[in-house]
Amino acid sequence: MKSRDSFRSLSKKLVTITVASAISGLLIVGMALSIIWKRRMKSRGLPSGMDDIDLPLYDFATVAVATNHFSQTNKLGAGGFGSVYKGTLSTGQEVAVKRLSKNSGQGPDEFMNEVLLIARLQHRNLVGLVGCCVEGEERMLIYEYMPNKSLDYFIFDHDRSSSLAWKRRFDIVLGITRGLLYLHQDSKLQVVHRDLKTSNILLDADMNPKISDFGLARIFQGDGTEAETRRIVGTYGYMSPEYAFDGKFSVKSDVFSFGVLLLEIVSGKRNRGFQHPDHHHTLLGHAWMLWSEGRATELIDESVCASFVESQAERCIQVGLLCAQKFPKDRPMMSSVVFMLANEGASLPPPKEPGFFVERSSGSSDAYLVKEESNTKNVVTITLPKGR
Ligand SMILES: Nc1ncnc2c1ncn2[C@@H]1O[C@H](COP(=O)(O)OP(=O)(O)OP(=O)(O)O)[C@@H](O)[C@H]1O
């Protein structure tokens, strides 16, 4: 009996020793990796504090292999900040690599500081940052890959829009509001997106919306501090009047863009380039006119005519119009937007006239815009005159 007991206690001791040594082994490996990581960061002259963030730093060669050397077949598209490539990491994880244009005007420190801010933002309705790459002049952001492309791919296409029935659209709207609320109020930082639009809403495998490009407008700041406040990066059709004309931005300028986005989702029509046989209003002007005449439901996309819930769709239109009002002070905060959309019983105020009621004719010049650099995607960088 005694010998069996001592055998049991001996084997217990052995198990304890084995588990303890396994744990300490893991700890040692972890510490060694952390030291290697810190040394690597130091050798690249990156800012201190980075070691607190769990964001992998990839070297150029690894990203090149993952994207098949940035081949055309891997290219997902190009935007205002550079090209995006599909990649597969050695772990098998699929990623989207955003290779920023060389003229970002930022040193590695500034870039990393901005990336660290983005890395701190984590929400199920924001596209997750998997890592980054900073080497020589290369600046790359590595995101989770979103297999269902972006919202514009569905809602503005005659055939594909029918696959987005009303419930799915409404869920997408709610997801976007939650992501934006997080950026504006709920995260530790207050982030103004500055380029919210349908092509920046990506869709995951289950069609959940993920806001992308948040923080990129901050990263891509041009080359001088003076220009920073006067350089406006945005997209026609979504920019609020105060941002487009005076370079003033706040959470309320994002709310304006969200209003446009909401009306586009409900109507299946683009604000920019909207045409109607009877008038020259933008989609915003058209929606406001219909709402004022009690005909708001005429705005609803015919692709959802069999599936929409009238009270929800009308509520979306009214909230969209409240968000797109001309003056920032009249627009609701995102917390109110979430409340108004989620509560059927909440009474909504009547919206005032929206900003950009009438389409600017394409050839017209605007006294405020002295320099306008367009690229392929209607993204504009405007430099306002000094003294504005
Ligand atoms: N994480 C991602 N997963 C899958 N595709 C992506 C991802 N990020 C971007 N893309 C795709 O890459 C293309 C370019 O995206 P990018 O965000 O650079 O430009 P954009 O949103 O079209 O234009 P802009 O620069 O005006 O915002 C788009 O077709 C987009 O759908």
Automatic annotation (TrEMBL):
Which Gene Ontology terms cover its molecular function? ATP binding; protein serine/threonine kinase activity
A single cellular component GO annotation: plasma membrane
Note the SMART domains from the entry.
Answer: S_TKc
Q: Per the database record, which ranges form the Protein kinase domain? A: 70-356
Q: Which domain of life is it from?
A: Eukaryota
Q: Which InterPro entries match?
A: Kinase-like_dom_sf, Prot_kinase_dom, Protein_kinase_ATP_BS, S-locus_recpt_kinase_C, Ser-Thr/Tyr_kinase_cat_dom, Ser/Thr_kinase_AS
Write down a Pfam family by its short name: DUF3403
Q: Does the keyword Membrane apply?
A: yes
Under what name is this protein listed?
G-type lectin S-receptor-like serine/threonine-protein kinase SD1-1
| Biological source species | Rhodamnia argentea
